[in-house]
Amino acid sequence: MAADSLGEATPRRRLSRRRVLETAISRADQGGLDALTMRTLAEELGVVPAALYRHVTNKDDLIDAMVDLVFAEIRLPSGGADWATAMRRRAISVLEALTRHRWAIGLMESRRNPGPANLRHHDAVLGKLRSAGFSVAMAGRAYSLLDSYVYGFALTKVALPPDPSGDPTERARAMLEQLSSNEFPNLVELMTEHVAQQGDDYGDEFGYGLEIVLEGIERARRQPRPQLGSSPDTTSQPDARPT
Amino acid sequence: MAADSLGEATPRRRLSRRRVLETAISRADQGGLDALTMRTLAEELGVVPAALYRHVTNKDDLIDAMVDLVFAEIRLPSGGADWATAMRRRAISVLEALTRHRWAIGLMESRRNPGPANLRHHDAVLGKLRSAGFSVAMAGRAYSLLDSYVYGFALTKVALPPDPSGDPTERARAMLEQLSSNEFPNLVELMTEHVAQQGDDYGDEFGYGLEIVLEGIERARRQPRPQLGSSPDTTSQPDARPT
DNA sequence: ACCTGAACACCGTTCAAGT
DNA sequence: ACCTGAACACCGTTCAAGT
């Protein structure tokens, strides 16, 4: 009780911004963002809540910093590969990071203060596209499409907060029982097939869509101007709206 | 003060689940989800907080119901159109709904209790794809890709909470000033171009990506088996799937 | 310089009590 | 049946005070 002579060998003693961020992340990883509370965080660090404010200006700043640490986990496009390979690797790396840190999915691209790792990341990806011959506008569109797909996939397939009630396949089966199959025949049909094949092939749904997106970008890049399938009248109307 | 004889002409007097949900939504629409508090909601309804619990079992139930009302705003695929047209219209309708209700973006596909409008919606979209000749698996993949794109676009381009500090173009310009252009040259390049063209053409970034996705789905549907660009070894493994 | 104690203004939710 | 009053157990954050 009186003697704390362990010194700097154990990283337990003194608080630091880094230590605050790391335990905050691991807490959010396993309990979701709701489980992250300044008070419980302080308690886990063996400190009084007010002490956190020496290392973090407020909870918003804490979360901004956590998000930037997640960005730092994503691999940047490495040197030699062609753009498609580089983008594929990056997309997978983003999805992996978002799977480890589900709480971050909704925050990565919607915070007001992008951190340094965030900026570095986006700059590097854009740079890869530019040096592969993409125009500025085309690089922007390609990046937008790719990121929309990756984050959207994460959001719709990975975002569910940690589930206390057992494995997801079982949950799907239970849910299936609830649905009256004559009211929602197509839903039941799809879920039955998914449950049947054990969710394994389902696992590469991400790669499947990713290839479609990459091929689409490659094709669009080779065309001078993309023809939008929807618009017979891109000019003429003053305020035309696709109703 | 003493006489409340207006009766049922004004919808002000009596509380109802519908009235609770509607004011909750309009509150979230203009202040974000953080501005939605059981207590302030009650106050706006001229009622004590505890009164809400007669019409809503708790805040989670409230939010589930709000999300389902957003689903109800999305148009279902109408009768005659081809699948691509139907999917295009739906995607635009989803994006519009998510633009009106930015707070819902992260919640539409990640709540544990999908409501009736949610189920109806997904069933109708799947039904459209099935009746256009998509196999069950292909319909699932197509839907997954489409929804990932739409929700991801919403998340990365629309999700920012209501911004007190003026118009976004000005904010982009201010941010540009901050970035040292030799540290993030590609980012600066892209933002400069976007700011220059007034964000108008930028507005159809959504349609641009959507067409690429739709074309990719059409092409994939016509192919017997998609060749994944990434995998030199799709066969040869012992535990191939039991299809 | 870093942490503590104590307080402030808020939350969501419950429960007995009123009408 | 529907709403109120009052309370409980929690929040994020501040600020004077200790070391």
The description of the largest β-sheet of chain A is:
none
If you compute it from the alpha carbons, what radius of gyration of chain A comes out, rounded to the nearest whole angstrom? 23 Å
What is the H/E order of chain A? HHHHHHHHH
Name the CATH architecture of the domain at 13-56 in chain A.
Orthogonal Bundle
Mean pLDDT of chain A: 85
Strand tally of chain A: 0
Structure classification of chain A: mainly alpha
Q: How helix-rich are the residues of chain A, as a percent range?
A: 55-70%
Query: Looking at CATH, which topology of the domain at 13-56 in chain A would you report?
Result: Arc Repressor Mutant, subunit A
What is the class of the domain at 13-56 in chain A in the CATH system? Mainly Alpha
Principal-axes shape call of chain A? flat
Which chains make the largest contact?
Answer: A-B, 68 and 69 residues
